[in-house]
């Protein structure tokens, strides 16, 4: 990430660095909460680049007195006696409200850079409700909210929610043993299993039905394939960060919802084309170095790349429908967003920060949680760490420290087993298979029959069930070798890469194509030719081995 700050940017801690205003901020002694300017400014750090702009998009003015009153009303308290501002996030301001009766609630106000007005807050609230009550994930309950800044007394969008009990995982993670860490991983994986057990039929973001004009009903697809409608919810425009960053909030483009993954990915390309054409100063890549004689991207080069993307996007998408289906996912699982029981740290009590959650193809959510990122000691080279050779001679304390460093280092996974041989030796045909020994009066089996029966027995005796087929395009191998070879999963993949994923050319229009499947699709869509039949003539196998 491009370095914008004079201090390192890490996810904020709810207690560390918090700005606490004590004790004269009770309503009785300090009735005007609006006089505290830090409530409305970005106070976490400084920006070393374009600071005036960065601060302006994180400055929001609203009526804190009204927000405090609404927070008290949400829990039936007569007044709020204390407000604590948590360290600023990049997109929101968050506060802890303490009531006269001791009850605490959390209030959240989005910055101007958080996303589209109304949609960002409305989607976050609906998502929290859905995840909590439909998917069974521990999420704070929303007590009061408004996504219409012009229609409430606060003058800004806001969410008031329960305070999550427990402590952030960051407070205990570094002191947890490997077994306890593994329990946390299993707990989070359990919630992810729940998220992956329910897919949707549309792509975008989740809303209450009454908060969006888009008539994309929320239909859930369970893991058993059954469909269930959720009339309270609807799929509406995406609220992802990519839809808002770098001035995109004010640009008009297709934000969804979309009916399929191709529509979604194509809309991404069109969005970027519109943004490149509309944004005055193109944002610099955070991964590039800029200086004399270095590469500078231009508007023309970006547009050329994006137009090429639009031509290729259909063929870049996975063909596996299970990872193309739309799922709702938390994509920011770092240790500050996970709360655990301080007495039993392996128990997850809450997961926060569901802003900008999207319903997208599962393959776009394919990232390990951030709390699993390597944070151990720095290492040199590619060799895995080892324990000291003289560890038995060390003191118990030093042995413990050596083992701790070893376990926190970049442990390499177990070595992969060598690929097993296919178990079929074509030369070992001197022993007749059982069917050939049944009767001396039977006609002597041919060499091909013997090999075919042996291939069939090999498949039947395999430890795992195997699907078998013959590829009639592979004319270089005899029938029995094709039958046996393509009962192996890896051999099948290797065969298709080598035989069917080579470049092709349409001789009707002289167009270069990527592979056989591309050629078939081209023939059907462009020339209206049927490709249901094989291009190859099926040979008579003369055996009872199934072919697919």
From TrEMBL:
<protein>
    <recommendedName>
        <fullName>Altered inheritance of mitochondria protein 9, mitochondrial</fullName>
    </recommendedName>
</protein>
<dbReference type="InterPro" id="IPR013087">
    <property type="entry name" value="Znf_C2H2_type"/>
</dbReference>
<comment type="similarity">
    <text>Belongs to the AIM9 family.</text>
</comment>
<dbReference type="InterPro" id="IPR051035">
    <property type="entry name" value="Mito_inheritance_9"/>
</dbReference>
<dbReference type="InterPro" id="IPR011009">
    <property type="entry name" value="Kinase-like_dom_sf"/>
</dbReference>
<keyword id="KW-0496">Mitochondrion</keyword>
<feature type="region of interest" description="Disordered">
    <location>
        <begin position="409"/>
        <end position="447"/>
    </location>
</feature>
<feature type="domain" description="C2H2-type">
    <location>
        <begin position="506"/>
        <end position="527"/>
    </location>
</feature>
<keyword id="KW-0809">Transit peptide</keyword>
<dbReference type="GO" id="GO:0005739">
    <property type="term" value="C:mitochondrion"/>
</dbReference>
């Amino acid at each position: 990430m491009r370095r914008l700050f004079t201090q390192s940017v890490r996810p904020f801690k709810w207690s560390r660095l918090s700005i606490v205003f004590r004790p004269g901020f009770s309503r009785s002694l300090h009735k005007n909460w609006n006089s505290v300017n830090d409530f409305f400014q970005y106070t976490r750090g400084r920006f070393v680049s374009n600071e005036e702009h960065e601060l302006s998009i994180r400055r929001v003015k609203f009526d804190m007195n009204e927000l405090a009153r609404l927070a008290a009303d949400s829990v039936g308290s007569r007044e709020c006696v204390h407000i604590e501002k948590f360290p600023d996030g990049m997109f929101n301001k968050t506060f802890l409200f303490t009531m006269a009766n001791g009850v605490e609630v959390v209030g959240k106000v989005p910055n101007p850079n958080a996303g589209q007005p109304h949609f960002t807050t409305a989607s976050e609230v609906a998502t929290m409700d859905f995840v909590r009550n439909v998917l069974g994930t521990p999420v704070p309950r929303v007590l009061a909210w408004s996504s219409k800044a012009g229609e409430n007394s606060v003058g800004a969008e806001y969410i008031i929610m329960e305070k999550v009990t427990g402590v952030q995982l960051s407070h205990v993670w570094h002191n947890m043993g490997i077994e306890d860490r593994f329990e946390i991983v299993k707990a989070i994986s359990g919630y992810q299993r729940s998220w992956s057990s329910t897919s949707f039929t549309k792509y975008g973001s989740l809303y209450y039905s009454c908060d969006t004009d888009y008539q994309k009903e929320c239909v859930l697809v369970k893991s058993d394939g059954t469909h269930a409608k959720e009339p309270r919810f609807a799929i509406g425009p995406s609220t992802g960060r990519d839809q808002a960053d770098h001035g995109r909030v004010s640009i008009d483009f297709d934000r969804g919802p979309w009916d399929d993954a191709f529509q979604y990915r194509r809309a991404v390309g069109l969005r970027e084309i519109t943004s490149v054409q509309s944004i005055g100063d193109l944002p610099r890549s955070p991964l590039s170095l800029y200086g004399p004689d270095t590469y500078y991207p231009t508007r023309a080069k970006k547009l050329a790349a994006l137009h090429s993307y639009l031509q290729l996007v259909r063929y870049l998408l996975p063909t596996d429908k299970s990872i193309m289906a739309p799922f709702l996912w938390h994509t920011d699982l770092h240790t500050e967003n996970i709360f655990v029981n301080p007495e039993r740290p392996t128990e997850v009590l809450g997961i926060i920060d569901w802003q900008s959650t999207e319903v997208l193809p599962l393959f776009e959510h394919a990232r390990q949680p951030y709390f699993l990122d390597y944070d151990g000691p720095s290492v040199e080279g590619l060799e895995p760490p080892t324990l000291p050779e003289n560890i038995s001679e060390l003191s118990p304390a030093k042995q413990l420290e050596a083992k701790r460093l070893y376990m926190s280092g970049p442990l390499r996974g177990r070595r992969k087993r060598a690929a097993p041989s296919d178990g079929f030796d074509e030369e070992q045909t001197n022993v007749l298979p059982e069917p050939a020994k049944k009767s001396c009066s039977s006609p002597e089996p041919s060499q091909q029959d013997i090999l075919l029966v042996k291939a069939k027995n090999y498949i039947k005796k395999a430890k795992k069930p195997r699907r078998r087929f013959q590829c009639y395009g592979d004319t270089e191998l005899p029938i029995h070798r094709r039958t046996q070879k393509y009962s192996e999963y890896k051999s099948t993949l290797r065969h298709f890469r080598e035989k069917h994923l080579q470049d092709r050319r349409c001789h009707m229009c002289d167009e270069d194509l990527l592979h056989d499947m591309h050629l078939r699709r081209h023939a059907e869509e462009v020339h209206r030719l049927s490709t249901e039949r094989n291009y190859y003539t099926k040979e008579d196998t003369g055996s009872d081995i199934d072919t697919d």
